[in-house]
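Lab notebook, bench 4. Still working through the backlog of constructs that have no structural model yet. Next entry is a single chain of 140 residues. Request: give me the structure tokens for it.
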Amino acid sequence: MLRRNQKVELLRRVPLFALCSKRELAEIATLADEIDLRKDKELIREGSRGREFFILLEGEADVTKEGRSINRLGPGDFFGEIALVARSPMRTATVTATTPVRLLVLTAQSFRRLLERSPEIQLKVLQALAERVGSDDAPA
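Model written out:
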């Protein structure tokens, strides 16, 4: 199991949380659970409603869109961040574990409750989203 400061360091690398202080990251870390899943487990399905955000700690996963492989994820990669801020997000791709995986999972419901209690974190997350959408690196 990860210690809280290890979770904080992982969350610090996620662009959505880039503007958050260490204390704010620690608050977010308390909401994150560590889970282990088997090889071939579908983690998210394209077109389904998103309810959680994942950071891949160990293992690998394939990302497919419309049945075509578009990316391979490894330790430190993350996916599903739009589910944390959008009310009815639809998954834009399918992610399937190609090995056994260990993940850090943050549910949208618990994250939204945190944002309601902490306007400072909410503002920083929205600012990070705005910067991502406005950058040349944002997906089309």
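Notes after review: The first strand starts at residue 33 and ends at 37. The chain is about 30% helix and 30% strand. Flag for follow-up if needed.
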